[in-house]
Amino acid sequence: MKIDGTKETPTLEFDEVLGKLKIYGVSVGVDPADFWDQVIDIVKTYLEDPKDLELDLNLAYFNTPSASRLFALLRLVDTNMGETKRNFTVIWHDDNDEDMRETGEDLSSMVSNNTTWVFES
Questions:
Q1: Is residue 45 within 8 Å of 81, Cβ to Cβ?
Q2: Domain span at residue 51?
């Protein structure tokens, strides 16, 4: 499944068979709910019969409303994977941006119970 990005929303590529979800680009809309709620719905469907999941996040920039939705997605998967004993890995790309690295580290500290985080520059 693929959702093409726009000037305000990232691109999503999801291979349900391999359990690989990739989100990349920017998320800067004033109300990013349309995009992120769609992502959450896709993931909720996947979690009905979950396998391991790898979430590859390469966001060049995202605003505060997007961060809230991203956190909701991470928390949803982290909680579910803990209940099902499946592996959840987040690959966080920071492109050598110190602020982006700190944001990833902050998110990882809030949802790291059942999640493995990999930081890549």
A1: no
A2: 2-120
pTM of the predicted protein model:
0.94
Per-residue confidence at 82, pLDDT binned at 50, 70, 90? Answer: confident
31 burial level (CB within 10 Å; 0-12, 13-18, 19+) = exposed
* Angle separating helix axes 64-84 and 98-110, nearest 10 degrees: 40
Q: How many domains does the chain have?
A: 1
Q: pLDDT tens digit string along 37-81? A: 999 999 999 999 879 999 999 999 999 999 999 999 999 999 998
Can you point out the beta strands (E) in the chain?
2-3, 11-15, 20-27, 53-62, 88-93, 115-120
What would the two tokens of residue 102 be? Answer: 């700190």
Are 114 and 88 in contact by the 8 Å Cβ rule? The answer is yes
